[in-house]
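2024-03-11 09:14:02 INFO worker-7 job=invfold-0412 stage=load source=structure_tokens
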């Protein structure tokens, strides 16, 4: 088993802004309509590369084709209770199934992602000797779940100081006793990886997010997986910290400008993104 911990400092997202942004996005989608399969905005402009191919618009069972290689199905669409959509994506021999759930639109309480990824023969027919013995090695499943009330509560609490140096305070946090509000898990025949994250508030208002990763083998293959994890532990640690640092840097590049926008400006930004085509995406925004 390998257990890694690391903490990054990122710009915070105000809860009120987040909740308003969710409502803004929901309302934008709810205002759309379809005509001969085409998806139209409230002002009549067509959203490119999206078509309704089955069912009634924004009703459970509605299916949309996106970019020819993906289908999105509406499972639930209710402002008062939840929004749940499923996506099927095929890219060559790789197939992905993803389901997203948000409980509560006006005051989001929980969000969840579930998915599976398979490639090359996992869905093929059985041969004369039975089911494809390698199928389970070509498939992985994953889940992630965030309790938003718990996240905001944790994010409002002062991050425990660790020594006098700021770097040590950020990179060596105290171990919290309560369950982390964000947890993700990846399952494969060879092993399981679990990631947990908990925020705290730094003196300057940013979030310090403590992330832990646990990897372990499964079933009869556990001894072999344990040896592999032991051998690669140092490389895993480097990759783990580098990935978190890179993600935090990108977050800090984007989020401050995003959360500074009022909802009318955010609405226009979402509309601009929805109307982009491959041609306009290739052109710098300041050139448009």
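2024-03-11 09:14:09 INFO worker-7 stage=emit residues=288
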């Amino acid at each position: 088993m390998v257990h890694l911990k690391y903490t990054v400092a990122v710009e915070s997202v105000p809860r009120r802004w987040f909740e308003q942004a969710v409502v803004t996005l929901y309302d934008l989608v709810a205002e759309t309509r379809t005509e001969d399969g085409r998806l139209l905005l409230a002002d009549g402009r067509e959203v490119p590369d999206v078509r309704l191919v089955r069912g009634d618009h924004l009703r459970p069972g509605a299916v949309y084709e996106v970019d020819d290689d993906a289908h999105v199905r509406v499972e639930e669409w209710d402002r008062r209770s939840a929004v749940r959509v499923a996506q099927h994506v095929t890219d060559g021999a790789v197939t992905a199934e993803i389901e997203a759930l948000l409980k509560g639109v006006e005051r989001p309480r929980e969000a969840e992602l579930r998915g599976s990824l398979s490639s090359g023969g996992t869905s093929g027919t059985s041969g004369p000797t039975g089911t494809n013995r390698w199928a389970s090695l070509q498939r992985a499943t994953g889940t992630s779940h965030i309790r938003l009330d718990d996240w905001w509560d944790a994010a409002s609490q002062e991050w425990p100081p660790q020594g006098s140096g700021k770097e040590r305070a950020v990179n060596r946090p105290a171990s919290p006793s309560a369950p982390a509000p964000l947890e993700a898990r990846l399952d494969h025949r060879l092993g399981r990886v679990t990631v947990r994250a908990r925020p705290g508030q730094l003196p300057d208002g940013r979030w310090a997010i403590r992330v832990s990763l646990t990897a372990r083998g499964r079933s009869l293959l556990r001894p072999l997986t344990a040896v592999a994890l032991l051998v690669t532990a140092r490389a895993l640690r480097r990759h783990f910290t580098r990935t978190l640092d890179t993600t935090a840097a990108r977050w800090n590049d984007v989020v401050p400008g995003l959360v500074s926008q009022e909802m009318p400006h955010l609405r226009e930004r979402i509309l601009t993104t929805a109307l982009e085509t491959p041609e306009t995406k290739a052109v710098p925004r300041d050139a448009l």
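2024-03-11 09:14:09 INFO worker-7 stage=report msg="The two ends are 52 Å apart (CA to CA)."
2024-03-11 09:14:10 INFO worker-7 job finished
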